[in-house]
Design brief:
Blueprint (H helix, E strand, L loop, with lengths): L8 H5 L4 H18 L12 H8 L1 H4 L7 H11 L2 H5 L3 H13 L12 E2 L4 H5 L9 E6 L9 H12 L7 E3 L1 H9 L5 H15 L4 E10 L6 E10 L5 E11 L1
Antiparallel strand pairs: 1-2, 2-6, 3-4, 4-5, 5-6
Helix pairs in contact: 2-3, 3-7, 10-11
Keywords: Signal
Length: 247
């Protein structure tokens, strides 16, 4: 699981060394080389799944997310026209979304999420597996920051309890797939998608994360996933947390 620690990140980042950065960039470039192979899934063109796998190198190396040195490296790739043209449109969108949310800022901005007044059944227009889903929303005061990786993680933990994994950019199609894997009620899934994307429709900023916890709202172990939708100005956020397992 790609876990982002929400505490003591500044101190932890000071311990990062050049070899860790070298490892992440080396792994990234190795994945890119493989993705451009004629025998790869996209042939010589990099597809979304390949760029996603390659970018995981920056999340898995030390477990603290994208640091400032890695961010600077990714900036060179953002401005590399040849590299950008080597990706499909959906792959380039994933790269851009990943780059945006993982901005190497490890101080969260003030985002307080509060429970919405109505139940999921009312909001989605159907009752099913998401009847017990928890939905919170809120906004960052004007001029006090935007919803980046650190802010989303802290807001989730403060609102729902567990510590989240890394928030990963997703498409509406991936959102539908995520929800459909848990609920077989088509009306409920469609209602949930409509309600969630109401916030991100113009910005197309959707994220998902996994979480797990022992003693968070249940006697034993619980786990699940969360979806975050972010507005165009990156200030308003709507999150839904779903428990998929509890012992």
């Amino acid at each position: 699981m790609k876990t982002l620690s929400m505490k003591s990140l500044v101190g932890a980042m000071m311990l990062l060394s050049a070899p860790a950065f070298a490892s992440s960039t080396t792994d990234f470039e190795a994945s890119i080389t493989a993705a451009k192979s004629p025998t790869s899934p996209g042939g010589t063109t990099i597809v979304r799944s390949e760029i996603r796998n390659a970018l995981d190198a920056f999340l898995n190396d030390v477990g603290f997310g994208v640091d400032s040195t890695e961010r600077a490296y990714l900036t060179t790739r953002v401005s590399d026209t040849s590299f950008q043209q080597s990706m499909t449109g959906t792959a380039a969108k994933y790269f851009a979304d990943f780059y945006e949310v993982n901005d190497a800022v490890f101080t969260g901005y003030p985002l307080n999420l509060y429970p919405v007044a109505q139940t999921p059944a009312v909001l989605f227009g159907a009752t099913g597996s998401f009847a017990s889903a928890r939905i919170h929303e809120g906004y960052i005061p004007n001029g006090q920051g935007i919803a980046n990786q650190q802010t989303l993680g802290e807001a989730f933990s403060n609102a729902f309890g567990p510590q989240a994994s890394i928030f990963e950019p997703i498409t509406v199609r991936e959102l539908i797939g995520q929800l459909s894997a848990y609920s077989y009620n088509v009306d409920e899934v469609e209602g949930a998608v409509a309600y969630i994307t109401q916030i991100s429709r113009n910005s197309n900023r959707l994220y998902r994360t996994g979480w797990s916890c022992r003693g968070c709202g249940a006697p034993g172990y619980t786990q699940g996933f969360a979806i975050a939708a972010v507005s165009t100005d990156r200030r308003f956020v709507r999150m839904m947390s779903v428990t998929t397992y509890a012992d």
